[in-house]
Amino acid sequence: MTPYTWLLFDADNTLWDFDAAEAHALEQTLLERDIAWSAEVLGTYRLINRAAWDDYEAGRLPREQLRDIRFRRLLEHYRQDHPAEELSLSYRNYLAASHHLLDGALEVLEYAQSRYHLGLITNGLQEVQRPRLANTGIAPYFEFIAVSDELGVAKPQAAFFDHAYAQMGRPPRERVLVIGDNPNADIKGALDYGFAACWLRHPGAADRRHLGETLRIRKITELLRYI
């Protein structure tokens, strides 16, 4: 019998297909300004974006800079002269309108809702995450939703998990399972806080042999084997 009473889900690439939504939003943003679009441009943006989020999650980048700095760096890389703030706003609007869910995500939430308390914990921007929650209709599954942009602190920082823990009423920490795809923000953050952690390691993701996760799955529906 599962020892957990709470399941805390990450959002992007755990329930939402962020890769698909990101690619569509970036393509539309660049093409409407006649900026060349290609898989190479997408790959470059993803490297820039990941570096910016890593800095934000580590507390090295203020959240007010996160929105625009990714596009400023992308434009500098390709020596393009466009207002980074305009590209950033357009991209966020396209992303906010997305409704991509990973296959099986709703099935997992339907099963889990009747058996566990559920929370959603996401590092993301308020103006992007809240509309996507409405678009995909998953907000009612959760007893609380924590968005880093609204809290002013991000996973894996303990202050983020302090907020989630308070929202849960401070149950025994070993009874809480965090499910996420990010080895640092989700898994290390959860383990350091004393929670159990399930790493959703998507095919192609780099292995972390000494991560120490409680569970490891390759797609979200595999979670049903353990809960």
Q: Care to give the gist of this entry?
A:
Helices cover 47% and strands 12% of the residues. The chain is an alpha/beta fold and 227 residues long.
Q: What report would you give on this structure?
A:
The protein is α/β, with parallel strands linked by helices. It has nine helices and six strands, in the order βαααααβαβααβαββ. It has helices spanning 18-31, 39-57, 63-78, 84-96, 105-113, 126-136, 148-151, 158-167, 183-193, and strands spanning 6-9, 117-122, 144-147, 176-180, 196-200, 215-217. A six-stranded parallel sheet has the order 3-2-1-4-5-6. It is globular, with a radius of gyration of 18 Å. The model has no long low-confidence stretch (mean pLDDT 94).
What Rg is obtained from the alpha carbons, in whole angstroms?
A: 18 Å
* Overall body shape: globular
Proportion in helices: 40-55%
Estimated structural class: alpha/beta
Largest sheet, described in full?
Answer: 6 strands, parallel
Main sheet: strand order? 3-2-1-4-5-6
Low-confidence segments, given as residue ranges, are none
Number of helices: 9
First CA to last CA: what distance?
8 Å
The protein's oligomeric status is: single chain
Please write the string of helix (H) and strand (E) elements: EHHHHHEHEHHEHEE
Topology:
Layout: E1 6-9, H1 18-31, H2 39-57, H3 63-78, H4 84-96, H5 105-113, E2 117-122, H6 126-136, E3 144-147, H7 148-151, H8 158-167, E4 176-180, H9 183-193, E5 196-200, E6 215-217
Parallel strand pairs: 1-2, 1-4, 2-3, 4-5, 5-6
Question: What features would you highlight for this structure?
Answer:
227 residues, alpha/beta
